[in-house]
Amino acid sequence: MTQLFAPPAAGRSATGAPVADAPATDASASATANDATATDATANDATDASAVDHLGAPWPASARPGRGADVLVGGVGLAEAAERFGTPLYVLDEGEVRARARAYRRALPHAEVLYAAKAFLCSAMADWVADEGLGLDVCSSGELWLAVSAGFPAQRILLHGNAKSPEELRLARRLRVGRIVIDGPAEIARLAALVAADTPQKVLVRVVPGIAAGHHAAVRTGVGGQKFGFPIEGGDAADAVARVLDQPGLELAGLHCHVGSQITEVEPYLQAVDALVGLLAEIRDRHGVELSELDLGGGHGIGYLPGDAELDLAEFAVRVTDRVAVRCAEAGLEVPRLVVEPGRAVAGPAAVAVYRVLSVKHVADGRCFVAVDGGMSDNPRPALYGSPYSVRLVGRRSEAGAARVDVVGRHCEAGDVLVRDAVLPADVRPGDLLAVPAAGAYQLSMASGYNLVGRPAVAAVRDGRARLLIRRETVEDFRLREVGR
User: Fold this and answer.
1) What are the two backbone dihedrals, phi and then psi, of residue 442, each rounded to the nearest 5 degrees?
2) Among residues 109, 160, 240, 277, which one has the fewest Cβ atoms lying within 10 Å of its Cβ?
3) Which residues touch 225 (CB under 8 Å, ≥6 apart)?
């Protein structure tokens, strides 16, 4: 998906109330722009922001070099935000989130689009996606509670997950969640026991279509041999559907699948359509029932490095909707409503992580390690998946040449490396600020308290103004959880 989005109008909460922004304070330090792929990028640092182009992917669409060698996101300097809110800091571009949500609504006007909260969720994010007409896909009582507490309509929420507790199912029923995805046999009886025939619960059955897709084996959820869903092959999915249809308190609305994450080609989704429509026809033939929804999940890939492939949203919309129509016509089925669940593709490109350099270590073999004040506790993806990132010096103009370094975290793990073989100015030093784009998805949502390092703050930026969304986690927060000794 491209980043060519127009800036949205002023934001409102999920209830329609205007969002009040606080003006960003003046920062004492100016920001710099040393591109990781060029040694002469400092020549651009003095360029007036009004006369230069955007930085381009993987940065937010609003990102550009600013006056005095700053880098602006949402009109706010990253160095300025770091001075105001401290580091590590996640700077979230509200306009980018809203524009990407609107792009999905425009591309798929007849489909239901659910934002996948597991990518990143806070009350403001719930407000923004609600405003833009998206539903919400949650997979825990925590995500569900936060969303509903923020005012997100429960009827627009879908609850899924492979191991829902009885308490989570009771909460979903009490809050009147729109749909629940059944992921295992025990959930059928468990959920049926909570409902009455006169107040049925709409459900989807998650099936495994036998399609391998995604950037890493750990996220290829469309194949057998992993914990999610009911495989179509072998009859597990058909048996689960039959059991659900036998429960008068469960209303089977459709089928659900999720084939993987960080998928940049449309073909796996077309294969999933073929498999799921085939199962829809089998259900019709066996039970005389035509299901009305077909949920293809999410997994839409974004770029993490300049030039990376992304899933083309326009191509996805056209080819998938056409494929559903063709396969349904061949099977003599009514066309079900398509549901998609983008998470990374909405949140990922909207945030930039800003770190402060704590130390620079040159070793005898020529390698250089630049250690920052964050690491795998706020971004575990490089350690888990070997995920690549780009990095840029901000906050200081450098005339030095380029050097290859490893940007590493502060944690007690040799694998705590944020960016391998990064290109930074050779004079990078303690106190410098480094910015990592494409930081909005599966970073803070997977963050930990390793080494009792608190999770970073999150600040929203828009139209030159910044406001704190999530405060920094402190040592006192950890201490307050202790109740005995």
Assistant:
1) 55, 35
2) 109
3) none
| Residue 356 neighbours by CB distance under 10 Å | 18
What angle (nearest 5°) sits at the alpha carbon of residue 269, between those of residues 268 and 271? 65
**Residue pair 152/133 in contact by the 8 Å Cβ criterion:** no
Q: Can you name the residues that pair with 470 across neighbouring β-strands?
A: 458
Alpha helices in 180-332 (DSSP H): 185-192, 236-245, 267-287, 313-331
244: number of Cβ within 10 Å: 19
Contact 311, 355 (CB under 8 A): no
Closest CA to 131 of 145, 110, 148, 151: 151
Ranges of residues in the chain whose predicted pLDDT is under 50:
1-51, 216, 218, 220, 222
Report CA-CA distances (Å) from 259 to 210, 232, 296, 328. Answer: 8, 13, 8, 20
Residue 67 confidence (pLDDT): 74
- Pairing mode, strands 351-362 and 368-372: antiparallel
Neighbours of 170 (CB within 10 A): 14
Active centre residues (catalytic): 412
Q: 385 and 216 in contact (C-beta within 8 Å)?
A: yes
pLDDT of residue 47: 38
Q: Which helix (H) or strand (E) holds 339?
A: strand 337-340
Q: What is the pTM of this model?
A: 0.88
- Rounded Cα gap, residues 342 and 344, in angstroms: 6
Residues pairing with 182 in the sheet: 205
DSSP symbol at 219: G
Q: How far is CA 439 from the centre of its chain?
A: 9
| pLDDT at residue 77, rounded to an integer | 97
Could you tell me how far CA 199 lies from the centroid of its own chain? 34
Instruction: Return the pLDDT at 358.
Output: 98
Q: Tell me how crowded residue 451 is: count the other CB atoms within 10 A of its CB.
A: 14
CA atoms within 13 A on the CB side of 262: 20
Give 230's strand partners. Answer: 207
**DSSP for 376-437, written as a single string:** TTT--HHHHH------EEESS---S-EEEEEEE-SSS-TT-EEEEEEEEETT--TT-EEEES
**What is the DSSP track for 188-235?**
HHHHHTT--TTS-EEEEEEEE-S---SSSGGG-TTSSSSSSSEESTTS
In terms of C-beta density within 10 A (0-12 exposed, 13-18 middle, 19 or more buried), how is residue 326 classed? middle
Cα(187)–Cα(207) distance, rounded to whole angstroms?
14
**Residue among 426, 305, 303, 447 nearest 375 (CA):** 447
Q: CA–CA separation, 292 vs 399, rounded Å?
A: 62
**pLDDT at 23 (0 to 100):** 39
**What does residue 91 show for φ and ψ, rounded to 5 degrees?**
-105, 115
